[in-house]
Amino acid sequence: MKTDELVALLAAQAEPVPRHAASRRLATALALGLPVAVGVMAIEYGVRRDLMQTLFWPMFWVKLVFPACVAIAGFVIVQRLARPGVRVHRAWLGVAVPLLLVWAIGLASWLASAPEDRSAMVWGQTWRSCVFNIALITLPMFITSLAALKSLAPTQPAAAGAAAGLMSAGAGAAVYALHCPELAAPFLGIWYVLGMALPAVAGALVGYRLLRW
């Protein structure tokens, strides 16, 4: 068979990709992993007993909305990176802006507090376990999102893996917030950020090998 004939044969069998296929697959991956993540949190750590009371505390909503915004931004980024030729443009600002806001709130509250209270605002009670707890809760969504990416066509595998890690970690950190007793902004700005950065780095490393064509 000649090259021209082979190209014509392949072109004749080509079908258009359904619109929003990448978004649907990644959303399905999150929908499959999220209930498992909630189950891990509830069984392994437990929901805060005073959760209804904390709903009236502004810092609880900061702790919940901050990682949720990272998850949304990560979703926007990864569904773009999952398609060849689609640029991310300024979507990374969706990660940077909430991060900078939390750091600004944390620095302002740290400077406004008494010197003897500053150490507790940074270290809290759970700094030793927070990062790894977030990573563990993130794991189900991390696995499903990478599996979804594997079925798509990312041309930047490391960046796509990192974005999938960020998306999963943002959702995982938001789930962990339903258990976490910490409310100090400096704690969130350090340990929650590290907890979300760990899956992002892992996603870049795994994605570089797993998602290559």
Percent of residues in helices = over 70%
Largest sheet: none
Strand residue percentage? under 5%
List segments where confidence is low: pLDDT < 50 over at least 5 consecutive residues: 6-11, 13-17
Q: Cα distance, first to last residue? A: 26 Å
Count up the domains. 1
SS-based class: mainly alpha
Helix segment count?
Answer: 9
Shape: globular
Q: Roughly how many Å is the radius of gyration?
A: 20 Å
Residue-averaged pLDDT, rounded? 90
Helix-strand pattern, N to C? HHHHHHHHH
InterPro entries: NrsF
Transmembrane segments: 26-43, 55-78, 90-111, 131-149, 158-178, 190-211
Organism: Variovorax defluvii
Pfam family, one: NrsF
3D architecture notes:
By secondary structure, the chain is an all-alpha fold. It has helices at 3-12, 21-45, 51-54, 58-81, 93-112, 115-123, 127-150, 157-176, 185-210. It is globular, with a radius of gyration of 20 Å. Mean pLDDT is 90; it is low at 6-11 and 13-17.
Can you tag this structure with a few keywords?
single chain; 213 residues; mainly alpha; 9 helices; globular; transmembrane helix; NrsF
What's the helix and strand layout?
Blueprint: H1 3-12, H2 21-45, H3 51-54, H4 58-81, H5 93-112, H6 115-123, H7 127-150, H8 157-176, H9 185-210
Helix pairs in contact: 2-4, 2-7, 2-8, 4-5, 4-8, 4-9, 5-9, 7-8, 7-9, 8-9
Protein name: DUF1109 domain-containing protein
Organism: Variovorax defluvii
Transmembrane segments: 26-43, 55-78, 90-111, 131-149, 158-178, 190-211
